Amino acid sequence: NAGVTQTPKFQVLKTGQSMTLQCAQDMNHEYMSWYRQDPGMGLRLIHYSVGAGITDQGEVPNGYNVSRSTTEDFPLRLLSAAPSQTSVYFCASGKGPNQPQHFGDGTRLSIL
Amino acid sequence: GQQLNQSPQSMFIQEGEDVSMNCTSSSIFNTWLWYKQDPGEGPVLLIALYKAGELTSNGRLTAQFGITRKDSFLNISASIPSDVGIYFCAGYNNNDMRFGAGTRLTVKP
Question: Rounded to the nearest 5°, which phi and psi values hold at A5?
Fold first, then answer.
C-alpha cells in the first residue's frame, strides 16, 4: 500500500534552474494538493486540484505551476528556482478538500 | 487571509503527564484537523472534527471543535515517549486549508 509517493526525496538546484517535483497516489483520491513547510510557519498551501483537469491556487502560488492530467499524478513545477523557494515540499491527497489528507514523506529542496 | 495561532510553540513534559495545546483564529472554520509529524516524515492525521462543539477521542487523544468555530484544542493523556513530535492543527473553509505553526512536544522518560 504505497499511499502518496513523492520523488525525489532530496534535491539541490542552482538559482534559475527549473525542475518538477513528482507526486503520485494510489488511493483514487480526487483532491490533491502541494504544501511547503518552512521553520516556524507550519504548512502553506501552494496549489490544489479537485480532480483531473482542474487546478487552483492556494496561499503561496507564485513561482510554481501544476497540472493534473490524471487522477493519480499531480506534479509541481518550479519555473526558475529562487533561494526563497528553499523548503520542504509535501504533496497530499484526500477524498475531498475538507477530508483528512494523506501526506507523502516530502521533498527537501535547496536552492543555491 | 485566515490565520491560525497555535500554542504553545513547544512543551517539555515528563512521561505520564497530560498535555494540552490549542489553536485559535479570528476566522470561522468548518473543519478542524489535528496532525502529528515525526522527523523526516509527512504529517499523519490524528483526529478530524466537523461540527461545532464536537468532542472526539482517539485512544489517549481528545480534541474539541470550539463552539464559536474559531478554535480547537487537543489533549493527550498519560504521555509516553513515542508522543514526541510536532503537532499541527489545520482549519478548513471555502477550499482553503490553513495550518498552525505547530507545537513541538518533548517527553522525558
Answer: -115, 125
